[in-house]
Amino acid sequence: MRLVVFDVDGTLVNSQNEITEAMNLGLRGAGLPEMDPLQILSIVGLSLPIAVERLLPEAAMDTHQLVVVGYREAFVASRARGAVPPLYPGALDCLAALEAEDDILLGIATGKPMRGLQAVLEAHGLTGRFFTRQTADGHPSKPHPAMLESALFDAGLGPDRAVMVGDTVFDIEMARAAGVAGFGVDWGYHPAEDLRGAGAGLVAQDYPALTQALLHWARQEDMA
């Protein structure tokens, strides 16, 4: 068996508007000025408290907590309105192609909490697609390898039988820390050159290219 683990924000779904709006609402609620969207997107992939600390390194812990609470409240309100970030073009076709292979399991490793992940999966009809789902609720933030280690444990596989797919350097660094191959995608929130610099084995330009690369990786492993 092989395990393909996907990040969510910036990899499966395009949530940049939702994330930047929620963060700026959290900042305003804490009495702070809004930030440029690119600055906010630079920390996507980290668990929320760690992300806020990175954005506000000089702020007090109480201020961090106010921003975290405001961000979460903004997300809850967004979900209550029925807002859901869209899947990237080709994502469903990629998942279907991988599922069609008898020896490939699918997983998720995301900085989202489980509640947020479930909302996205349910909205897109993906709840039954992933064998293992690892979230920020029970693990240290990326790039700590704990999420991937738990995914490997669930699947009963060694790190040489898995690949992590993500759009940020945190995903690639987590993969390296876990001894897992790391594939980057060029449609997310960190530049391709940064992903390559972090050690990505490849950076796919679109979902068809990613699908081809993942199937090739799995089949090459079969021949080894």
Automatic annotation (TrEMBL):
GO terms for molecular function: hydrolase activity. Keywords: Hydrolase. The keyword Hydrolase applies. PROSITE patterns: COF_1. InterPro entries: HAD-like_hydrolase_sf, HAD-like_sf, HAD-SF_hydro_IA, HAD_2, HAD_sf, PGP-like_dom2. SUPFAM superfamilies: HAD-like. Transmembrane segments: none annotated. PANTHER family: HYDROLASE-RELATED (PTHR43434:SF24), PHOSPHOGLYCOLATE PHOSPHATASE (PTHR43434). This is HAD-IA family hydrolase. It comes from Paracoccus aurantius.
